Amino acid sequence: MAEGTTDGHRWSVALEFHRTPPKGYTLPAPPDGTTTPGRSLTTAPGRSLLCQRMYIGGVRIDHQGGPWADCQPVTGTHDPHASGEMGLWGLHDKGLNGTRLMVSNPEPDVAYGVVSLSGGTQVKATTVTVPGTTYRAWAAPIPEGRTITSVDQYDTHHNRLTHDTNWH
Questions:
Q1: Pairing of β 122-126 and β 71-75
Q2: How confident is the model over 99-122, as pLDDT tens digits?
């Protein structure tokens, strides 16, 4: 999906869609108790898995949480609950320092994001969609020691759709 080099480290972000659950994945019990705890995803019809694989310097972010830490169950290829999220990810202190990645799973009308950094630098990232699905994301690297001043998202006509100043 997206890759590059920042601070001398290779980074990459990819969405990985599994139409059926991979071997070894177990669906967590929902809080409403509608399924048996530990029920295998293979026994829940219409369920799929969407993973957001993020790497900095060859190390997968959230690797300590196991192979499915960066995955979420979704319903088929068009689950609307899988969009509208944005996060800042890194290998140290929950993404507060070091080389970091800003990743957005935007709404369908977002064509790209622009992350403005301290010092006036801007990083533009184009939205990419997993073929055959509506799952989409854009990713931008944030160099060590840089502060995010704003994150803006735009449509294909370059109209700004969102403006967020709550990231650092």
A1: unpaired
A2: 999 999 999 999 999 999 998 999
